[in-house]
Design goal:
32% of the residues lie in helices and 21% in strands. By secondary structure, the chain is α/β, with parallel strands linked by helices. Mean pLDDT is 91; it is low at 341-345 and 347-357. The structure holds S-adenosyl-L-homocysteine and iron/sulfur cluster. Iron/sulfur cluster binds next to helix 4.
Length: 360
């Protein structure tokens, strides 16, 4: 099967296609004019177009299913060339703004939640993706295509800003080379032009990879899936904690370069009777001491035969209040997209209001 042209950075493309300004034009066609085929690229000479179509596919994804939630979030199931499937979610949020005449106008902001792997090796006890095991890494182009397709299919203008969160299926730092290449392709001004500060990597805490990512100094945002404050419980929930315990994750975060105006997000999945008590909240405050952090509490989203329960609202509120009272910024992720049925438990939790709020 031919690789997708979306795997290529503009520099790589300009080494293949001469003269090199053609790479810029091709990038415009793909990412800004949403061309459907190489043939559509009107100002590109015929011989270049046939060279491209002989060697590359333009679109590596096929839409299998779309599910729309009552709040407007849309979940897409995509099929890859080898038959594997994975998901991405579009999360729109309407914001009120004043125009120059002082009139209220509505502006929609978008976040797109992307997958980085088919399945996942990490095996967290609460996660549906873990249940299917690991199939393979997504290529850079298969990651980039999720955003390109969602923009194109929803007629989102090329110059509309979107945020990207690597919170779909898979562990992005277990596929760090392809994910960082996708970040670079997203950033390109002749392409989608989505800056690093609009991209958030969520990780289960691969400390050595967090440090590696930090050394690359890409300017992206970091979210840590913490979920527990002592190693004993975290090991049970997330086997990765045996290799990288809480202390090593916290140390890696402390070394991570973060824009002075931004914070590292700590995701804390709350499960009834397990980690929803104030003793845990107290430990969390201690753990985060000295870090510019914000905590996002997530209601555990039960699925068939899931071993955990959704927490009570009262306990969630008390947990949040404790953190806020002790100087830690904390929000609760609202689960508005719950009516989207999904193969991948976590994706339906990534609903519009919360992510846009978190990333605004
Ligand atoms: N592998 C990365 C990114 C994908 S998972 C990571 O773990 O961070 C993204 C988020 O979905 C994680 O914070 C994860 O804890 C959460 N999640 C997984 N299963 C869930 C469930 N059943 N209910 C709610 N959130 C869940
Ligand atoms: Fe993998 Fe994240 Fe699911 Fe854990 S929560 S199994 S790291 S996708």
């Amino acid at each position: 099967m031919k690789p997708t042209i979306l795997d290529l950075t503009k520099e790589e493309l300009s080494e293949i296609i001469k003269p090199s300004f053609r790479a810029k034009q091709i990038y415009h066609w793909i990412y800004q004019k949403y061309a459907d085929s190489f043939d559509d690229m009107k100002n590109i000479p015929k011989d270049i177009k046939s060279k491209l179509s002989e060697n590359y596919r333009l679109n590596p994804l096929e839409v299998v299913r779309v599910e729309e939630s009552s709040d407007g979030s849309k979940k897409y199931l995509f099929k890859l060339h080898d038959g594997y499937t994975m998901e991405a979610v579009l999360l729109p949020m309407k914001k009120e703004k004043f125009n120059e005449e002082g009139k209220t106008i509505h502006e929609t902001k978008y976040s797109i939640c992307v997958s980085s792997q088919v399945g996942c090796k990490i095996g967290c006890a609460f996660c549906l993706t873990a249940k299917e095991g690991f199939k393979r890494n997504l290529t850079p182009g298969e990651i980039v295509a999720q955003v390109l397709m969602l923009k194109k299919l929803n007629n989102i203008a090329q110059n509309r800003r979107v945020n990207i969160v690597y919170m779909g299926m898979g562990e992005p730092l277990d596929n760090i080379n392809n994910v960082t290449k996708a970040i670079e392709i997203f950033k390109d001004d002749e392409g989608l032009a989505i800056g690093a500060r609009r991209q958030t990597i969520s990780t289960s805490g691969l400390s050595s990879q967090i440090e590696k990512l930090g050394r690359m100094d890409l300017g992206i945002l970091l979210a840590i899936s913490l979920h527990a404050v002592d190693d004993e419980l975290r090991e049970k929930l997330m086997p990765i904690n045996k290799a990288y315990n809480i202390e090593s994750v916290i140390n890696a975060v402390k070394n991570f370069p973060i824009d002075a105006r931004k914070r590292v997000m700590f995701e804390y999945l709350v499960m009834q009777g397990l980690n929803d008590d104030l003793k845990s909240a107290k430990k969390l405050v201690k753990l985060l001491h000295g870090i510019k952090a914000k905590v996002n509490l997530i209601y555990f989203n039960p699925y068939q035969n899931s071993p955990f329960q959704r927490p009570n609202e009262k306990d969630m509120q008390a947990f949040k209040a404790y953190l806020n009272d002790h100087g830690v910024i904390c929000t609760i992720r609202q689960s508005k997209g719950l009516d989207i049925s999904a193969a991948c438990g976590q994706l339906k939790e990534k609903t519009k209001g919360e992510l846009n709020n978190e990333l605004a």
